Amino acid sequence: MNRRLQQFLAAENISQSQFADEIGVARASISHILAGRNKPGFDFIESMARHYPALNLEWLVLGNGKMYKTATEATPAPVQEYPTPVGNIFVDEEETAGIEPAADILSPAPEPQTTERNTSRSKAQFIKNQRNISRIVIFYDDNTYQELK
Hints:
By secondary structure, the chain is mostly helical. Helix content is 39%, strand content 9%. The strands form two sheets. Strands 1-2 form a two-stranded antiparallel ribbon. Strands 3-4 form a two-stranded antiparallel ribbon. The chain is elongated.
């Protein structure tokens, strides 16, 4: 595979360091792979697939077929955004848009202030705005996770 990776870099006319920066891996990793000391892992190949959607992964990994997919096969895959770490918890920003920090979630909801202007409409609005936790995902340092619903 190291020869095919060298061929790909030559075809793209990019250096090892440019390539490493592009796919987000350490420059030494590219050097080790090209020298044959290491084999690329899944994350490496996945990152290549995201950044170079026209690259034929079957050619890269197995040597079968041509270097690039045909025009109909080469549809760019959306770049996966990874959850944002918050302490030891990873938070998916799209799913949690508008959610308060954990300290606010765990504290009791404030009671609505009772005033003469407090109508049934404002009470209904307060009830409507309450949210419930639908799931919690816990990631462990051994790369496993647990989803609580």
